Amino acid sequence: MSSLEGIIVDDSRCFACGPENPVGLKLKFSIEPGSGRAVCKTTLADHFSGWKGAAHGGIITTLLDETMVYACSSTGVFTVTGTITVKFHRPVPVSREITITGEVDEKRERHIKTSGKISYQGKILANAHAVLIPVKKADDAMDQIRNRLIP
To answer: What order of strands is seen across the sheet that includes strand 30-31?
Structure first.
């Protein structure tokens, strides 16, 4: 595991998924334990716009990043992002339900390669690839993130 283990502490205030962050996205995920896959359905508020009616690129990147991290968490490994590359295909709408999917593509001891996509009405609007760095392995990973999962 990374030398970050013990330094990174979950205080429930993560901008993307933290239930205690009053201005965060408060994302919730559907995860099958051990699957290497995470799905999030969310509707972004208008104040996350870049241009009128379209989500800001930083928010789009955050959605993809977080969902790929949760895909890793489904395997019992907590990670941080080493690199992420995002390709924007079409505007991501605000005020409409979108689906974000993340998957583990290749798992090694020192890094995990992942991919993600955002879709709306069957069209892929953005996709990403990331290399995530393991920082902590947890046998009870699903218990640790249960308040961020859709039952």
So the answer is: 30-31, 37-43, 97-107, 112-120, 123-137, 77-88
For residue 43, the surrounding DSSP H or E stretch is strand 37-43
First vs last Cα of the chain: how many Å apart? 29
Q: Is the dihedral of CA 130, 149, 109, 80 positive or negative?
A: positive
Instruction: Return per-residue pLDDT of the chain as tens, 151 residues.
Output: 555 555 677 889 999 999 999 999 999 999 999 999 999 999 999 999 999 999 999 999 999 999 999 999 999 999 999 999 999 999 999 999 999 999 999 999 899 999 999 999 999 999 999 999 999 888 999 999 999 999 8
pTM listed for this prediction? 0.94
